[in-house]
Amino acid sequence: MDDGLNIYLAGEIHSDWRARFREALEKRGVSARFLGPQEQHARSDDIGELILGEQPDDRYRDLVGARVNTLRGRVHLRAADLVVACFTEKYRQWNTAADAGAALAAQVPLILVRPPEFIHALKEVDALADLTVDTLDQAADAVAYIVE
After folding, report:
1. Mean pLDDT, rounded, of the chain
2. Which CATH number goes with the domain that contains 26?
3. Disulfide: which of 3, 44, 108, 112 matches 129 by Cβ 3.0-4.6 Å?
4. Which of 21, 36, 31, 39 is nearest to 133 (CA)?
């Protein structure tokens, strides 16, 4: 199988989990194209007003930003062969759950990465995911197996 997978990396944008996952795949000899949310937090927050102009208050600023970011996410998700949704210990963002749900709705295979202490909190998402793992290394092993 060609190892040029398009992998959507769903999850918080505050930690280095994406870089660690990319490195784990590289160590396993897996090449991939990575898609996902805007990783520059300020750009993500500002994009709605940059495109649509100044909004009357924070509610509308957040709403137009979310709409542009959701558009980006939907386009990237549709191009993905696989979604890796990572819930980290420090940041438990709803965006990760929303992206995981969107992947499931679009029938894009989903690997859920979550620490063991989140087993109960994520049990419904866990039940729907194609594979649930505890670590990024386990997720990388699964991706390497897919392309071997």
Report:
1. 94
2. 3.40.50.450
3. 112
4. 21
The answer to whether position 66 is within a domain reads: no
| H or E element in which residue 81 lies | none
Task: Yes or no: say if 39 and 68 are a contact pair by the CB < 8 Å rule.
Answer: no
Report the amino acid identity of residue 53: G
Residue 3 has pLDDT above 60, yes or no: no
What tokens appear for 5 in the block?
Answer: 């997978």
Total domains in the chain come to 1
Name the 3-class secondary structure at 110: strand
- pLDDT tens for each residue of 37-69: 999 999 999 999 999 999 999 999 999 999 999
